[in-house]
Structures are given as structure tokens and as C-alpha cells.
Amino acid sequence: MGSETPLRLPIIDFSKPDLLKPGTPEWELVKGQVRQALEEFGCFHALLDQTHLELRKEIIGAMEDLFDLPPQAKMRYPSKNFFDGYMGPRPTAPLHEMLGISHATIPENVEAVTNTLWTQGNTSFRRIILESFGLENHIDSHMESSHYVFRAIKYKEPQSPAKMEIGVGAHVDANILTTLYGNEVDGLEVQTKDGKWIHVQQPPNSSTIIMGETLSVMLNGRMIVPNHRVMMSEGNYKARYSAGLFSTLKGGYEGKTLKEMVDEDHPLLFKPFDYLEYLTHYREKASQGIFLTLRDYCSLASKASN
After folding, report:
1. Which keywords, in A-to-Z order, does the entry hold (predicted)?
2. Structural domain of residue 78, as residue ranges?
């Protein structure tokens, strides 16, 4: 009796120079692949060219130096909100450290790296998604309404004899779209539509693209927003480093479902929302042990936002 082939996230080739040019045959091919992947899994691997691989190595190396700083140095930049600052290990995530840098405060040298490595790709992914639904007229306003948050993340190797330890618990991303790069240490897991967990093995020269709730609300729930987590095994004798770019709505911009996504077969599911107000509400609820997703917050079928 043969064993089942393990599930893998789709791998989509973005390594060809002409690929990121709208209207080319390669663009049209990839557009269909991206939509299919997001409808089925809510995420995929984007295969990149060699330039990105070398630049990623530099970023991961810089992150190792950053997290090796003494605690008192890192705490000089405390986390004051969901965007900026250092957050150290805590009881619910003892292996996890994070430093967030919002677009407005990125130093010039870091901004140059993120523009090269992240922003073009993140923008292209979102353009492809909107085009796949015939929403070309909304692309410019969508890009104008968003900015980027860079996060450097470290998951320490497990210290206990347990076989697995939680790096960060299961969650969905509330932002628009997430782009993740990691070192060679695995740990990311993604939950499928039927509840199974996929152990993600990211190809070396790739990023992992994850659908966020903000974009799902814009598309009236047409795309999967995957539950994901990081699990560190005792067999990992090295820390996992992950660098992420999170596209988010700017303050003052209303998040809402695009009218083209509503029809008889797809009735409106969500009311408009202010992203910063949601984050404030989330923080208040989280202090009470209630973790409210953005979709629950603005769902027309739920009173959870009250």
C-alpha cells in the first residue's frame, strides 16, 4: 500500500525578467496560477532570481547581528503599537523575538534594500490578484492607500526536551498581503481548507506570499486567508530567522469591499472599516483574552465588533 504524497504549497516562477511586465504572455500565465493558489491555499512560494538570493543572505546576516545585541540595547526601541519597535520573548511565545519598522521610519539604507527586495514584488503580486478579478481600475487607488511594515523575526531553537515547541501560535494576518523570506531552518506551517497542517519547506531562492484579511474583505471573501503558525522542533539546532514585508492600509483610508465583487451569487459579507481603529479594538480585546479577526470585526453577520 503506497504512502500519500505530502501536500506542498504551489511554487510559481517569478524569476524571468519579463514576467513582471503586465500584458506579457508570462504575466497572463502567472496571473492564473496565482489566483488558483490563493483560492486553494491562500498562499504560495514565489520563485525569484539569483539577485534576490544574495540580497536575502545579506539581510538574514544583518538580522543575526541585530538579535545578538544585549537585551538592554534592543529595549531602547520598545514596541508601542503593532508596527514599530522591539518585542521580546513572552509566556505565550518564549522563542519569539521581533523588531518592526514602519515605512515612514525606515533608515535610508534599509529602505533601499526593502525597495529592491520587497516592494516591487509585493506590488506586483497585488496587481496580479486585482487583475485576475477584472479590477484594473482599482489598482492605482489601492497602491496609494497602502504602505509597508518591515519586520525582522527570530525564533530561538527549543531549549526543552519536548519534540516540538510553538514559535508563534496559529493566526491569520489582518494586513493586505504578507511577503516572507527565511533562512534554511524550517518551521512555518499552513492549515489547509480541510484542517490539515502543511509543514512548509521553502525553496532556497523564493519568498512565501500569504493572503491577508484586508485584501480578502476587499474581494468579498473570494480568497482563502490561511491559518499559519511556526513550530520549532528539537532537531533544529539553529534559530529560525524570518524577514517579512507586510502591506497595510494607511491611516485615514477606509477598507471596504469593492462593488464589482458583489452580485446575486456573492452577497455583501462585510461592512467598511478603519484599519487603525480595528487594531486598537483588537488590542483591547486581546488584553481580555479575546482575539478578534478583522473579518469577524467587520462581518455583517456578526456582532463581534461591538
Report:
1. Dioxygenase, Iron, Metal-binding, Oxidoreductase
2. 11-16+30-269
